[in-house]
Amino acid sequence: MMQLQYYIVIFLLAIFSVQSLTAINTWSMTYDEPTFLPEGLAIWNTGEHRLVVDHPPFIKLWSSLPVLFTNYSLPLGHKSWVNAERWEFGRAFLFSNNADFIIKAGRLTILLLGMLLGIIVFLFSKNLFGKKAGLFALFIYSFSPNIIAHSSLITNDLASTFFIVLSLFLFLKEREKIFPWKTAISTGLAISSKFTGLYLLPFYFLIYAADYFRKQKSIAKIIKALITIFVFSFITLIIIYGFNLFALYDGINNVVFHSKQGHFNFLAGEHSTKGWWYYFPFAFLVKTPLPTIILFVVSIFFWFNNKNKDWKTAYLLIFVVYYFFMFSFNNINIGVRHVLPVFPIVFIILSQLINNKNLALKLFIIILLIWYVYGTISISPHYLSFFNEILGGPSQGYNYLIDSNIDWGQDLKILKQWQVNNNNKEIFLAYFGMDSPIYRNVSFNLLPCNKYVNGTIVVSVTHYQGLSKELAQCTAWLKNKEIKERIGYSLLVITT
């Protein structure tokens, strides 16, 4: 007979899935989604890696599986394929087929990974701190707006998070083994999902070094274990690439170049192409529910004051600090999603609080959980735009962070419904995204750059703030106009 804990796991994963499915069905196509699934189909059909070279192929291949055996038309004769123009090829494919069906089918593959990651979080925490802690960690996971959001999109952030957390779980279980081959294969899949999976390798070295200085492991055993991880993870990576070493080289080379070159970045009214070292800690602080932050801080406090500190919690804390540290050198500051792997680890660390027998603490946890669940339910289905109360919630978030933190083009279908509810009112539109207002039957005129117009203006918050100082000039004249309404949290309605 199935134990009660597994019924609870199924129940929590069902709640998680319902929230994700709400987003999947509500959101229009987001900015990066046209680039993954279509290239996956192209790789399956041609074997060529020519479009999204700065991302490895796992998520492309994985997300395209539900569509692979359906009746679709791949525009391999289109100029975007010849010229390797990723977004143009993706849009040409999607809008010449059933775009909504394809996007929803691809999103379901990411939701599946999100559910599997929930199981790993449960097992990870249960293995470290017991059954109650495992269920507590899964509860926090199941209502995390950031996890729900990225489990609902065809991007590689959730897949990368899944394999990084799985790798850490396996690594801590196999740490005593000379040949940790499971860790190695999972690490290879993490790198095959996103090149930031490479950050795992120095982390393993750090932990083995700590083991050596704690006299837990000899140099010979450490070297054998590291060689196993490096060799088998590389073999896994090469297999996913179809043994195309040139594509792998191009991918890593492009990522290094992009990171050095920088990106259009925005933070609290400032623009930069080189980013800020504190961007990701700040983004984490304002986009993580306050109850989660409080529970995390309290758990660290209790752990530090525990005379019998467990080393596994220390290693997980090291990973959190290490991951933020590695991203402090990154010039691409466009979303908290880049540090998404930190979230499940935080949930696992804080889950040990449930074992504390202090009655006052238990009551405090219950209050925080009510606050936590209410915050997530109240923002549904706009999980991507979640901001906590520190800066005024999601309605004020665009003053501090833009792009995938709040506005990734996800509210275009909601805009169409808003227009229907407002007698198909004509609008001037400045939309940030790769979906098509024409495909969505939105009646609009393009908002001209830096030119006053009379009427109803709908502007994406990313365009409102501007990706760069130069682009910000296009909508600078709108800053002294009153915001009449918000569509979702990514679109502002202004009447002139």
Summary, kept brief:
The protein is mainly alpha-helical.
The geometry reads as globular
The largest beta-sheet arranges its strands as 4-3-5-7-6
Task: Give the CA-CA distance, first to last residue.
Answer: 66 Å
Structural class assignment? mainly alpha
Q: pLDDT average, as an integer?
A: 95
**How many strands, what sense, and barrel or not for the largest sheet?**
5 strands, mixed
| N-to-C series of helices and strands | HHHHHHHHHHHHHHEEHHHHHHEEEHHEE
Helical content band: 55-70%
Total count of helical runs of at least 4 residues = 22
Number of E-type strands: 7
Report on the architecture of this protein:
By secondary structure, the chain is mainly α. Among the domains are: 152-376, no CATH class; 406-495, no CATH class. Helices cover 56% and strands 6% of the residues. The strands form 2 sheets. Strands 4-3-5-7-6 form a 5-stranded mixed β-sheet. It has a two-stranded antiparallel sheet with strand order 1-2. Strand 1 and strand 2 form a beta hairpin. Helix 1 (4-26) runs parallel beside helix 8, helix 7 (99-129) packs parallel to helix 10 (157-174) and helix 12 packs antiparallel against helix 13 (219-240). The radius of gyration is 23 Å and the shape is globular.
